[in-house]
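Annex B, item 7. Sequence and structure tokens for protein A, then protein B.
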Amino acid sequence: MGEDKTEKITVNLGLVDLGHIDLLVQEGFYTTRTDFIRTAIRNQLSANGPALDRTVARRTLVLGTQHFSRADLQALHDRGEQIHIRVLGLASLAEDVPPDLAVATIASVEVLGAFRASRAVKAALGPRIV
């Protein structure tokens, strides 16, 4: 998996649950703890798939990856427009986007997943990030 396709998270588990996972790994049901956790998450997401689909449709979220270049935002600025970024997945702004251009063109940011932008841009957009 590529760097842009994953996000590292930390999960705290009770020792008994961790022991159960280790036992399943030792018995060959899963190759690693990570394999078990990813499988468990995918199973839960699949079980809740219809509810997730309805929520994504209702909230008009872009599903997947949405990237904005400096040129994209400059074009919005030139037209006097602002956008509301709403993404379930990954939203990213190019590293060369200056904070003033981001503030002038991005009305709000709602990302369920990961939002990647320079520290300066994130700081400038701070109050607009939901």
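Protein B:
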Amino acid sequence: MDALVVYESMFGNTRRIAEAVAEGLSRRVRAEAVEVGSAPAQVGPDIGLIVVGGPTHAFSMSRTSTRRSAAQQATGPLVSRGDGVREWLATLRTPAARLGSAAFDTRIAKPRMPGSAARGIAGRLRRLGVRAVGPAQSFLVIGTQGPLVDGEVERARQWGERLAASLPATAPGESA
């Protein structure tokens, strides 16, 4: 079984979390982190787990308008420049019956704002018929552009390890 980590990231913080999750997963299964603009429109039969994450914008997943606002605030190039996770999930085709999923987001640590992109992502995956293997997770950043709060990359790596441990035992690259 393989795992695919799909992420949307404006300033690079969500990308760092996605890479750490993939690293944690890769201790048990083959895992790859892919920016949403390069993510497949259909999940192949070799993928047994899909982990999807993005930044929390305006209490949920980003939209065209919130990505435009992020671009205006950016002091450098954006990581994700096109459609976001919301649009990708709207067109995703999956072998839902056998696919597991997990969702995560990045969000500002203080003040603690309501809403969560991860909960929205998890809901979209559930509506696609994909079963969750664990609760949605939030990883914290300091301010809109970051950086990540100390320890969040390691926490993401450990979360990836826990996700992998919850999967059926297979060798890396082996189909379940």
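Comment on protein B: Strands lie at 2-7, 30-35, 47-55, 100-108, 131-132, 137-141.
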